[in-house]
Amino acid sequence: MRTPLLVVTGVDATAMDAAVLALSLDLPGAVVVRHRIDPATQVLTRTVSDASGHLETAHVELEHACVDCALREDVLPTIEHLARAGRWDAVVSCLPVASEADQVSAVLEHDTRLARHVRLASVVAALGGEVDAGGEDVVEDLLCDDDLADRGLQTGPDDDRGLGEVACAQVELADVTVLTGGSGPQLAALVGALARPEAMLVTGCAELDAGALLAGRHDHEAAVAWMLPTDDEPLAEPSTEQTGEARAWRRVLVSHRPFHPERLVDDIESLGRGRWRARGCFWVATRPGDLGEWSGAGGQLSIGTWQRWGARTPLTRLVYTGVGEPPAGLEEAFERMLVTPEEGLLGTGSWRVAEDGLEPWLGEITDVA
């Protein structure tokens, strides 16, 4: 029998601990494992406990202080060990702060040996904030331009990820988001717009239904497809009764035309800087085989090559989400950066170049004939 696994993510250690405590109290037969990364010493600390009390604390020196190394070297092996022990009804894993659950989910989806012992039931994103602020602090975290390092949340010296980008992605991947510090209308609207349509939003850890979460089954493919959409299916406007600054908005920019490499480099700030969450896929005329990933929040933007398009039809699709008044000019900026129909008539041969100026972000061109 496979042991169900609950994974807790977040960028606020206090919020994550509150969610883990609530789950452990509701699941007396579960074992809880917490992982923390010290970016200065590059040491991963693992703490294991159950209803009987503290069971273990161990310190693991990482080859690199990063989430990937932590997952590979200790998080996943520990989850497997606890699941195979046969002593507990469930495993609750509190990932290192600023970790995303997609890596754990991907391994459990594709590693048939591990999947024989562990079933990823649900992913929980825990958000903090002050009740008196009506959730405004969390809205700022989701849409700010701070790096993780600005808040002391980086995993190592090379961790230059944006706080908002990580926090938004955690919500998008989660099966349930818990607002541990209360919620104002603006926060509820924003999180509701970021989360997958089938995901749950609860206010306060007391509202977490541990039994329902254990009975669930995390859908890895659906979660990744929501965070990185690669189709042209329409998305409805976020459902909200709020108005003004508390109203959530969504804009979907989609085209089967690629970006023009020079115009993308020159004008990327018009699509990258703003108080919004942006996610999606794109392709560039000089790199027709590469599926690019577009991810950012609050003015921070990351682009990179995710994988090859393969048999899929290349698509440029960016999804923008925010609160308040939607920004003007997004559609026009998007259209400016696309290859025009007239340029496309020149034929693909004219786009075969050795360099296009995007190498620092997308790597070397591999589609050169």
TrEMBL record:
Source organism (scientific name): Nocardioides bruguierae
Superkingdom, natural source: Bacteria
Domain CobW C-terminal per the UniProt entry, residue ranges: 248-338
Family annotation (SUPFAM superfamilies): Hypothetical protein YjiA, C-terminal domain
Protein name: GTP-binding protein
InterPro entries the UniProt entry points to: CobW-like_C, P-loop_NTPase, Zn_Chap_cDPG_Synth
